[in-house]
Structures are given as C-alpha cells and as structure tokens.
Amino acid sequence: LGLCVSRASASVLNLNCCLVLLPMCRVLLAFLRGSQRVASRKTRRLLDKSKTFHVTCGVTICIFSVLHVAAHLVNALNFSENYNEDFPAINAANYRGEDPRKLLFATVPGLTGVIMVLVLFLMCTASTYAIRVSNYDIFWYTHNLFFVFYMLLMLHVSGGVLKYQTNLEEHPPGCFNPNKTLRQNMTMPKAFEELFPDYTTECFPQDLPVPEPFVQNNLMRICSEEPKFQSHFPETWLWISGPLCLYCVERLYRYIRSNKPVTITSVISHPSNVLEVRMVKDDFKARPGQYVILHCPRVSTLESHPFTLTMCPTDTKATFGVHLKVVGDWTERFRDLLLLHSNQDAEILPIFQQRRYPKLYVDGPFGSPFEESLNYEVSLCVAGGIGVTPFASVLNTLLDDWKCYKLRRLYFVWVCRDVESFRWFADLLCMLHNKLWQENRPDYINIQLYLSQTDGIQKIIGEKYQALNSRLLIGRPRWKLLFDEIAKCNRRKTIGVFCCGPNKISKILHKLSNSSNSYGTRFEYNKESFS
C-alpha cells in the first residue's frame, strides 16, 4: 500500500510541479493577452486567474508532498522489517532490521527528500498572508528557493529505489522454480515426485522439457530463469524540464530587456505619502492597465516590486510613470534616495541634476485585467485609495483620444479616507471632464468621489477643482443602488466591473456582479492581481 500511495502521489506532484511555473511566465501571459491569438474575451479573462491557479498548484504540491512523505516513511519501515534475501535487488535495505533512518539520511533519494521538505515548508509558511503583509522580504527570498527545490527534485528521482521486473515471460509472478525450492529443502509437489522420481533430491535439469500433462492441468507454471529487476526510468524531468526551461528563458529575456537603466525625468511627492516617478526608456511600449516591476540596486540587490503604470507612453510622448505609496521599508528607502530633501512636498529636478538619481531598472510591461476596461461598451471602475493607479493610465489614454476605443460610457467610483488623496489625480479628472464637455460628450464619464472619513473639509481645495467638488460625497457608496441604476440605464448590455482596492469592497462587488437583475444586464467582474 505504501508503494502504491507513494507512486500515485508522485504522479500528482509531477503534474503540479509542471503547471505551477506556467502562471509565472509573465511575458508569455502578456503576449497571449495582447495578441490576436486569444480573440475571445472570456478566454482572456481566464488569464486573469493566473495567480489563483499558481496558488492552487502550490497548495496541491504541499498536500500531496505530505502524503508522499508519509508513504515513504511506511516504505522505509517495511523495507527494514520485511527484508527478503531471495530478492535483494528490490530491497532498499541492506539487511533485515536495518535502521530506517539510514534510508532517509544516508541515501540520495532520502536526503534530497528531507531537504525538499524543509524548502517546501519555508516556502509554504512564508507565503501566508500574515507574513507577506508584515515582512514581504521573507516571502520574496524564500520563494526564490524554488530553483533549489527543482534541482533537488532532479536528484531525488535519480536514486532508482523503485524497480520493476524485466523478464515477466521467463519468470511470471507465482511461477515454480524447482532448483530454488529444492535448495531451500521445501517439499516437492506430489505431481513432480511421480513424474520425476530421480530428481527429487538434486537440482532440476535446466534443459528438461516440461511434461505435457502437467502443463495442461495448469497446476503451476515453471520458471525458466531467475527474476531480473531494473530501476524505473525517471519521468519527473520529462514533466518539469519544459516549463522550467521556458521560465528560465523568459527570465533571461527579461534580464536582457531590463538591463539598461531608465532615465528618471521627474519625482513628485504627493499628499498622504504618495510618490510619483516619471521616466523615459528607449523602445518602451505599454498598454493602459499594465504594470511594471521596479528594481533599484541601491535599495535592495535582489528585491523588486510591481507597480501599475499611471501614465503610458504614446506616439507623441515617451514619458511613462508610476505612483507608489510609501508604506514599507523598500518604498521608504526608495523615496529617501529619490528626494534630495525628504521634507519638501514636491520636487521636480532639472536635467543637469539627473546624475543624482539612483539607477532604476524597469522590467515589463506585464498584462493585467484592466486592459479589458476599454474593450467593453460600458465599464464600471471602482478604486479604493491608492488602488486608483490602474485607472489613471486608462484616464490618461482617454484624455489623448477616446474615440478609437469600444468604450462609450465609463462609471468611475473612487473611495478615499482623506480629501487630500483625491489631489493625486484631481488635475487629470478635471482635464478629462472639461475635454468631454467641449466635445459635447459630458455623459461619457460618470465620476463619483466618496470621502469615507471626514474631518470637516468637504471639498477639494482649489478653484480649478470645482467640477470635482460637486461630485464629492460624504460616506460610503450604496453599492446595491449603484448597480441597479447602472443596470437600468444599460439594459441588456454586458458591463465590465473592475476593482482595485480593499478585499471588503472587492467581495461586495463580486457578489453583486454575480447577482441577477430584472433589466437583462450582465456584469462581468475583474480584480487587480499581481502575478
């Protein structure tokens, strides 16, 4: 039973170790999302589940690894206690009663298995939500142990512990071997005593033909030779070599692509600890809604973080930018390096001072669900706090030209705790609002700003923000009424729902999107999820 369970669990592990790497091939996913090869929106939306698929494979690997280890612990005990001198080739133990710990720590399969269990334990525990939130560095560094895990996995299957018989025709299971039986002083079957009285006490002749009556009676099959065993051909590398090579090639391509540092053109410090970085890079192209991975060697040699693009390069300008909220060690050190005087609220440096910026490398861009926001006729975009960043690039794109996209109506809902946070993109919202009014399309975008916590200031400071002050509401959105209103105004249409914010808001929107309504309107839910 132990051998059967270990073999079955090993097959499941082979499959999941193969699949778990595919969702991490970001370049491949971005290519599939942006190419015409995946024309169906429903199929493209499946790519948004890449992180969920990766986590599912990881959990499956953990579960079946426990099952695999438990089965091999039973196998080690059985090999030791049930050692059979007749078949030394298939015994992992060297003698009866051998310490099972020797099989676990003194053999290549055993030792590599123990180390893989330790590596998997570190990766699994460091991937929990509590550790990722409290100390992202631990998650980052332990997760990169996957390469060690795969190298050990290659060695683990090369031990050849499990074997199979190669001469089943010459030595079928349950066959009778006269020579072996006589040497062990076992009782000769009565049929053989009557047929071969002269060979009851000496070796059975190898070339003696088997009596026809005995064969016809099917009493017992006679072995023509001793059983021969051979180690199973290791199949694990057939499963993981393809995805592992694909992942390594992609990482090499990403390293070459991001090897040249970008040119930082400006750094702006916004209210509520938000930093905007604008930069330029040769031949950099991106679509609205995509994200990049920033790496600053002076902050951390190995660590890098994803940030959504808030400004994409266009045909007329090559500048692109990101907004990042200073909430951790990495962002704090990054901010201190970028700002010459950290106590200043804003700073835009001229070109001759560019040498004072640290080297910054950009990997990407990579795809995200928000690329689909422009492919719906009607879209509902909901942002919570700094979660507005994916929609900023969409709004910037619409400011350049909105007529070339399928989108004809955009509901934009932004919820913040303090009024100062709205100033991150207040200028952008006002410019887009004024442009649509000038082009006689004021109904193109519906802006709703919600201030969840008020301190008495109920309007955005500045005369130029009058258009937004009339859309600023105190409290939280009444989501059910909002969905009913949108469904009523867009009967029998498919509306894309996009959310980037707290999980509480996300769960509410997901539930409402799956609810039916009396207007025949269908809501398709999308959520930001970095791979």
From TrEMBL:
GO terms for molecular function: NAD(P)H oxidase H2O2-forming activity; superoxide-generating NAD(P)H oxidase activity. The chain crosses the membrane at residues 12-32, 53-74, 103-126, 138-157. It catalyses: NADPH + 2 O2 = 2 superoxide + NADP(+) + H(+); NADPH + O2 + H(+) = H2O2 + NADP(+). GO terms for cellular component: endoplasmic reticulum membrane; focal adhesion; NADPH oxidase complex; nucleus; perinuclear region of cytoplasm. Its EC number is 1.6.3.1. One of its GO terms (biological process) is defense response. Its main location: other. Residues 257-372 form the FAD-binding FR-type domain. Keywords: Cell junction, Cell membrane, Cytoplasm, Disulfide bond, Endoplasmic reticulum, Glycoprotein, Membrane, NADP, Nucleus, Oxidoreductase, Transmembrane, Transmembrane helix. It is found in: Cell junction, Focal adhesion; Cell membrane; Cytoplasm; Endoplasmic reticulum membrane. PROSITE patterns: FAD_FR. It is an enzyme of class 1 (oxidoreductase). Pfam families: FAD_binding_8, Ferric_reduct, NAD_binding_6. Gene3D superfamilies: Nucleotide-binding domain of ferredoxin-NADP reductase (FNR) module, Translation factors. It is a multi-pass membrane protein. PANTHER family: NADPH OXIDASE, NADPH OXIDASE 4. NADPH oxidase that catalyzes predominantly the reduction of oxygen to H2O2. Can also catalyze to a smaller extent, the reduction of oxygen to superoxide. May function as an oxygen sensor regulating the KCNK3/TASK-1 potassium channel and HIF1A activity. May regulate insulin signaling cascade. May play a role in apoptosis, bone resorption and lipolysaccharide-mediated activation of NFKB. May produce superoxide in the nucleus and play a role in regulating gene expression upon cell stimulation. This is NADPH oxidase 4. It comes from Colius striatus.
